[in-house]
Write a structure and sequence with these properties.
The protein contains seven helices and 13 strands. By secondary structure, the chain is α+β, with helices and mostly antiparallel strands. The protein has one domain: Endonuclease/exonuclease/phosphatase (Deoxyribonuclease I, Chain A), CATH 3.60.10. It starts with a helix and ends in a 12-residue tail after the last strand. A hairpin with a 5-residue loop joins strand 5 and strand 6.
Length: about 350
């Protein structure tokens, strides 16, 4: 009996000493944030108005990592985004990293992260055709850092060429092929997420097939967290209504795309390492979602009538902030991370 008691105590000690934590990752196309394109301008895409909607969304999502695309290529916009939307109400731990923009595009990708939980190690660019695809190499702030042990996460953020023509699809393939070659060279078998607005009309697109090809890229291929149920001809297809991310409005107001929700353009895909949890980071099953998509707004505005996924206030914010929905997922980390600060509106 005494041996059983000792064994039980040892098991309880082991379980209690093995700490885990969760972080939430969010990818969001911000629709020409801070950029005047002519058709998107200060009148129909005002930054201050967008910020108010973004704060409403962030208060609901409460991410630890936020990656974005269609962000104006201006360093001052990064700082103002931090001070207006993230480092508010007593929170001061959110950071970004300097812009690179080797492609000299008017819109870029950015990352915002809670520096209490993560540290940026390196920011590089995988390819520069049409727009940069950015690579953000980070590690989690855990107690194990004192012993030199790190749990790493790499976020690859891209905005692929838009359009449904064969030339557009070919350009998307070129962008992804260069990126996959880069990852296969420098980040094989690592904890990697690739995310962004990929403008894919179906899973037969050459770029999507390249990203998920475990033969061509055995050490760096990606897995769709939604699994087989979301893979197929998803564009304007009612069968895939739960996964659509664009467009949030059925109305044409000159800036945002219209027509209502009918496209799956926005993605977060994960490496095999994250899928298996082999290196301290594991995808939390069933945590992936197109935030605000309740499956009942196919070809409708996200705020039309009631929305069973979010409140009316949040649905309105999603409709007016951008023509894309954010996509989010959770990661389980095999350690305690930071001191659990977060956005606190």
């Amino acid at each position: 009996m005494k041996r059983l008691f000792v064994l039980a105590c040892l098991i309880m000690f082991y379980v209690s000493s093995f700490s885990q934590d969760e972080v939430k990752v969010m990818q969001y196309n911000l629709l020409y944030y801070g950029t005047n394109t002519g058709w998107c301008n200060a009148n129909n895409n005002n930054v201050e108005e967008k910020n108010a909607y973004i704060r409403t969304i962030l208060e609901e999502v409460r991410p630890d990592i936020m990656t974005v695309c269609e962000f104006g290529a201006d360093e001052s916009l990064v700082e103002s985004f931090l001070s207006s939307n993230l480092n508010i109400n007593g929170v001061d731990t959110w950071k970004s990293t300097p812009i690179i923009n080797m492609a000299s595009s008017n819109i870029i990708n950015c990352i915002f992260y809670d520096s209490d939980k993560l540290t940026m190690r390196r920011h590089s660019v995988a390819q520069t055709f049409i727009r940069d695809i950015d690579v953000y190499e980070m590690y989690f702030n855990t107690d194990e850092l004192a012993q030199g042990d790190t749990i790493e996460l790499v976020c690859v953020v891209g905005h692929l060429k838009a359009g449904g023509g064969n030339e557009d699809k070919f350009k998307r393939k070129v962008m992804i092929q260069s990126t996959m070659n880069y990852l296969e060279k420098y980040y094989k078998e690592k904890n990697v997420l690739i995310m962004g607005d990929f403008n894919f009309y179906n899973s037969e697109e050459p770029a999507y097939k390249l990203m998920t090809n475990n033969i061509t890229y055995p050490n760096s291929y990606f897995i769709d967290p939604l699994g087989p149920s979301a893979v197929g001809d998803w564009n304007n297809n009612y069968q895939y209504k739960d996964y659509h991310t664009q467009s949030t409005s059925s109305e044409n107001e000159g800036c945002a795309s219209d027509g209502g929700l009918d496209s799956r353009f926005d993605f977060i895909l994960m490496s095999e390492s994250i899928s298996t949890g082999r290196d301290g980071v594991r995808y939390v099953a069933d945590s992936y979602e197109a935030f605000g998509n309740d499956g009942n707004h196919f070809n409708e505005s996200i705020n039309a009538s009631s929305n069973s996924a979010v409140s009316q206030e949040v649905a309105d914010a999603l409709c007016y902030s951008s023509d894309h929905l954010p996509v989010i997922l959770k990661l389980q980390i095999d350690a305690e991370v930071g001191n659990h600060k977060n956005i606190n509106h």
